[in-house]
Specification:
It is built from 3 helices and 30 strands. The protein is mainly β and 407 residues long.
Length: 407
Amino acid sequence: LTSSNYSTSGTTTKPTRTNAGTTTVYYIAVPTSGTINANTVTTGSTTITINKLSMTVTATGYSGTYDGSSHTVTLKVSGPSSYKVYYSTSRLTSSNYSTSGTTTKPTRTNAGQTVVYYYIKESTGNYNDVSGNLYIYIKPKVTATAYAGVYDGSSHAATVTAAGSAKLYYSTSTKLTYSNYKSRGTTTKPTRRSVGTTTVYYIAVPTSGTINSSDVTTGSTTITILDRLSTPTLSSLTNSSSGVTVKWKKVAGASGYYIYRNGSKLKTITSGSTVSYTDTGAKNGTKYQYKIYAYSGSTKSYASSTKTIYYVSAVSISSLKNSSTKTMTVKWGKNSKATGYQIQYSTSSGFSNSKTVTVSGASKVSKTISSLTKGKKYYVRVRAYKTVSGTKYYSAWSSTKSVKISK
């Protein structure tokens, strides 16, 4: 502004600025009386500067094991009310984000890594743009199953598979890592024929893209060749609602088990990993003796120790009532082969802090229990037992019933 244009180009209203950026304000001070010319005015300029804000960006990549699904990165922006995020697998800058980027997030499904570049553009210009990059790391999924068997003159290998477009490398001498798998590993799967153990180290490496330590899966498994099968350990015999449940410990190298009852083969188990069986043919009140053999092909182990049980059928509760003040009466079905019954009751459905009452005699099928707490709900279950030579053999518990003590 000058003495010659202030009246036409100037205004007495002060300029303002709202958005980020700079405004130059020119001013002139003019006398309110007398002659006005270049010698009687004062001119100058100043600026209004509003700096851009910084948006808050929380950026999270992805790292996981191959699961067949697509995965991507996560961006959370705080501050601006309107913005766009551009993505690319190539670097984005202020000059190429709109031409090289897209608003669709890149994804990855197979093993390997994808670098995701992003550029965040705020629409009003009041926030600084933000750019950066994240990674999607997906490791191969490896399933490894050790081999254990009895010597048969043949070579055997552990089973190792990799999912997610990956290649497997093996070693029997050293653990494989991202830095040594090329020099110390081989794609030929190790085998063993003689009695003994071989540790097989493996690494699964993605077949495409850039590879580093975040993209590989490592581990080990074993090949075990036995001279004979170990003798099984018969863990327990218990009476269940459907029969006698036999449990034993797994034997390395076994392809299955033979279950013997009272000296005769009862059942052939065709899986070396199965370690229990329920004998549904057991008869109430009858004595049974069980033992287990492990087998692999035609090779059979020595027999386990023999365990004895009497099968006792479960009973069921027929009636449960709050029969009188702070008292309940429970009735159940008769087991003619039983020596007696055991009643368990608690204010907890899980029977914590429970109390137990024993009733002698197969024909006594009811019991009144007193000194209960009014207003409480009681859970009750019953089982039968048979005593032989001082040992009690219990049936499975009945289904639980409950009653509220309102009297």
